[in-house]
Amino acid sequence: MVDEQNLNFLLSYCISALRQCSSWTHVEILQALAALVYNNGPKCQKYLPDLLGTAGLLLQFSDPAQPDVELRRAAVRSMANLCLSVPGQPYLDESYRSVCFQTFLSVLQSSKTTDVDDITFCMLLQSALKGVQSLLNGGKMKLMQIDQIGALLAVLKKCMFHGLPGLSIEVPTALYPAPLPQYDKRSPVKQEQSEPATSKQTGSRRKKCKGKQKKGEFGEEGREDSRDAGDESVLGADMQKLHLGDVQGSPCPDPRPRVSDVCAGRDPPSCQPCKRFSSSESEYSDTEGGIQGKVRSYQANVRQGALACFLSTIKSIEKRVLYGYWSAFVPDAPGIGSPQSVSLMTIALKDPSPKTRACALQALSAFLEGSKQFLSVAEDANDHKRAFTPFSVTIASSIRELHRCLLLALVAESSSQTLTQIVKCLANLVSNAPYSRLKPGLLTRVWNQIKPYISHKDVNVRVSSLTLLGAIISVQAPLPEVQLLLQQPSSSGLSGSGSATPGREQWRKAVPWAGESPQGSPAGCEQWRKAVPWAGESPQGSPAGCAPPEPCWLLRLCVSLIVLPREDSCSDSDTAFPALGSVYEPCPLRLEALQVLALLVKGYFPMAQSYFLGLGEVACRCMEEMDPSIQLHGAKLLEELGTGVLQQHKPDSPTAPEQRVPVSLVVTFWTMMLNGPLPGTLQNSPHATLQTSACDALSSILPEAFSLLQGDQQILCVTLLLGLNHSENPLVKAAAARALGVYILFPCLRQDVMFVADTANAILNSLHDKSPNVRAKAAWSLGNLTDTLIINMETMGQSFQEELSDLLLLKLLRSATEASKDRDKVKSNAVRALGNVLHFLQPCHVANPRFREAIEESLQALIATVGSEATMKVRWNACYALGNVFKNPALPLGEAPWATQAFSALSSVVKSCKNFKVRIKSAMALSIPSRRECYGSTEQFCQIWSALVVALQRSEDTEDFLEFKYSSSLRSQLCQALLHLLQLARSTDLPLIGSSLREHGQAIRPYVLQYLSSPGQESEAGAHTDLAERERGLQGAIEHLSAIERELQGKARVRVSLYLEDVLTHHTNATELAEA
């Protein structure tokens, strides 16, 4: 590193020398300048006008008209070094960035002239590519203009194929967003005097027949490039054939690999070792061959630089803009008689350099990342027979072609590093493709073809293969196609490939599927293992026939990788992971297996439940190990097992009761966990993330099972969680607060006043924490706690209310009021808790002076939240809370000033809120008071009526199309609220109601008729109203109004009750006509 004083002196000297010295010195001066400014850009600010200004030296020397290419290259290199960013230092000004970008772009757009040698031109392109990449990475440059994006993508695509043997394309000066591939003009491919060699080709580029393969040879680009001297033109024609047809068999002769060959460990026909040219067969002399090899190496560097720059470009463009260029970089199925468009997969399949192939796959993987929304439009489940091809079918075709090409690359690849990138790219594709909208079969091909690579000699390939399997079982789970794959026999497709690890078959024999104890397992688990149905038999108490005939292949594989000692035969890459004195498989492999196992349990629990106790044992063994990462994923597996049982036992679960995991088995499971490593893991304070996961796991216990645990185990769970709630680590404290919020809903705990009080104090402590995450979790738990108060009030009556401390209740009220002023994540549950506490209050509390001020503040907080600009979730909860307040008869609803404000706020929301779900909840709140006195004066009552009428007329007015699906529910709730008001109306209310009906009666009439005739819908609160109940509501309103009007003997009868009678008559006639 040069200090700043010397740097200033040297830069001044270089600039002066460039202006005064002869031209023959300029190249060397620029090389020195490039070395000086490297990583010193921020220190060169005062020299930028001389270098990059209007008449800057670097701009002059890098001008396209510059005849000396070496001079131009040196100038571009200096400019690229200036663009390098230094962390923590200011970057180039926007004007200089723009000048550099345009210079680099012009260099990349230029063509090689005849007087420029290949190597110099490659070095010029490399410097420009590095400069663009530095601008995109260091300057956080955001490409916004379509012309700028299109021009850059065009030159990058051109450079991606620079010097690629067997292929020459001419890309337009700019690419534009288009749904179909843009035309790439292909130039005739020069055969480079290799005509005699064409008869000697036998297939793939990847392998040699002659000579021995040296270890690590595939990872060294230079060696492979030098070997590929003479057969690239052959390769172009041969690989072009690989683009046609499908992965599996086709009617015509097909050079592509078959899945059956791959699974059986045989080399596919198209992937037989290719004959390489020896030096004696080459038409070049040794010197010429050396030069050609050097040129190819530099051309490969250009392609790699372009791909690295494209990767940075992907990160600098918004996804919605980027996917406009999908067809330019992602393959599509070729049309009849037309060649396939060149894409990133062309490089992955044809490029002779494994490093370049890996770069292309890395770029494609980044391109696919986050594409789920874009790809979600794809659909080809139904055969389309139209005069045009819909965009959805085009995208589906592209997805299928991606699968086909990646699977071709998979079987043809020999470099372990590139193979890892292929599998990762496949995993990214699988994670984003909408398989439920595509014809089945794609995942089956990927599944069958990846199986041999799980036993690959390279540990990185094995890890990425497991990642791919994890992606398959997690995508849109459960998919019928994946369910069938999981049910395949264990032996299906697992015969070792040529690269399989010798002796790996032992895992099938050594895993304790039949209940035997593996070596080194804890003695405390012996009795448990005897009950584990690893051999496929049904567990005790579970339905007969529930288990598959033999264990799920993937489940068994993952368990073997996690718990079995490693084999002796391992690749060199294993030495980078010295796990547990090499007793077990490498740590990354075990971690990936644990994650796949957790995903399998999460997505396909009915399949995994047959091995419920055995999987619990795996989680136990992992938590007993010394490696915190293994312990962590063991705890995550435990959480997924607990969550799977919880989902099964939900009241609305589609799983039949006899097909669920028996509660007795769940009790056994958690008894062993609490007698095993779980309590120790929860107290493992050095590892906060592990404690957090253990907390989440403990909160996944089934309530019915918890109530059947022994008393000391119940106390252990509660004591651990209450203790962790005082942790200094915010992650642990948040998890403990959430777990307490789960436990407070357990029937066996919520009726215990002491537990409720202890939990309330713990939650209130967390509610004042400085961490926003802790406060958000505590607010959620506070909402659950107050839900419990309401449940206990309804089920236990006065006894529970009297036992609960008044002081605690006041603390709950004040803390919830304070939390309602916090950020939205806290506020949404704080207002829910406020509504519950205000509903819970008794007349003695309302009359108590200590409570009076707190009640007023809490009500004002709720009213303010309803009318605020908070998120819709917060406002929804605030409307719900006010509805709860209205249920408390102890509150002076008809007299208090806050009641007028509450009704006014709800009336405003029901008319004008953009979110229909909030409108529905506000209409529901307005219909809760059960007595006319609660609505206050006649003027206030009629204002509420008018607001509901206006809301009904506006029930289809929305700017957001997504809200329309709630419009029917909104109209039903509004009609129900209007009828509720009519059933409570007084004689003094009728004149204004009659006036409203005269003005708006015809407008709202169709909505009321629709409410009476439409099928019963489940409301937001879960209440189900049928047609008969709605008719009874209308009839009740007519009878109530008729009685009042008979007393009045005025004109109101014609305008109100007769209006409703006319609606009822019309509805009855329409119903009879429909039934006839």
Automatic annotation (TrEMBL):
Region of interest called Disordered, as start-end residue ranges on this chain? 182-231, 244-265
Biased composition regions of type Basic residues, renumbered to the chain: 203-213
Bias kind Basic and acidic residues: ranges: 183-193, 214-230
Q: DUF4042 domain location, by residue?
A: 302-482
Xref: PANTHER family: HEAT REPEAT-CONTAINING PROTEIN 6, MALARIA ANTIGEN-RELATED
State the name under which the record lists this protein.
HEAT repeat-containing protein 6
Species of origin reads Serinus canaria (Island canary)
Gene transcribed to yield this protein: HEATR6
